Amino acid sequence: VQLQAFGGGLVQAGGSLRLSCAATRAISSVFNPLNMAWYRQAPGKQRELVARITSGRSTNYADSVKGRFTISRDNARKTVYLQMNSLKPEDTAVYYCNAERNGNNHWGQGTLVTVSS
């Protein structure tokens, strides 16, 4: 599964961004069973889980983004989204899209989000 993430950029604190991750070259029977997630890695820090949505559309979030970020998926478009509101400088990181099924992981190339104070 090839994942292409986009939508990052520079935004002021309090602003919003929407990240998208498309599973290119995937057919629906491949994409639909995947559990999809967004991770992020800030400079000097370990990669951390931001939000996850299962094939059954159950979601979970890191405590630091609860109430501000929303993950969703559009199986028809084979795309997962991360709506990020009320952004804070500490949200600055490279955001990575992840697809997982039965312990097999696939990663996108990452998109940089920079939040200025």
Blueprint (SSEs and pairs):
Layout (H helix, E strand, L loop, with lengths): L1 E5 L2 E4 L4 E8 L3 H4 L3 E7 L6 E6 L5 E3 L7 E6 L4 E6 L8 E9 L2 E4 L3 E6 L1
Parallel strand pairs: 2-11
Antiparallel strand pairs: 1-3, 3-8, 4-5, 4-9, 5-6, 7-8, 9-10, 9-11
3D structure, described in words:
- The termini are far apart.
- Strands 2, 4, 5, 6, 9, 10 and 11 form a seven-stranded mixed beta sheet that branches. This protein has a four-stranded antiparallel beta sheet with strand order 1-3-8-7, with no helix packed on it.
- It is mainly β.
- The protein has one helix at 28-31, and strands at residues 2-6, 9-12, 17-24, 35-41, 48-53, 59-61, 69-74, 79-84, 93-101, 104-107, 111-116.
- The longest helix is centred in the first third of the chain and has 4 residues, at 28-31.
- A hairpin with a 4-residue loop joins β7 (69-74) and β8 (79-84).
- It has one helix and eleven strands.
Features:
117 residues; mainly beta; seven-stranded mixed β-sheet
Sheet/helix structural class:
mainly beta
The largest pleated sheet is described as: 7 strands, mixed
What is the helical fraction, as a range of percent? under 10%
Name the average pLDDT: 95
Query: Could you tell me the radius of gyration in angstroms?
Result: 13 Å
Terminal CA distance reads 37 Å
Q: Which runs of at least 5 residues are low in confidence (pLDDT < 50)?
A: none
List the total number of helices.
1
Strand content: over 45%
Quick structural summary:
The protein is built from one helix and eleven strands. The protein is mainly beta and 117 residues long.
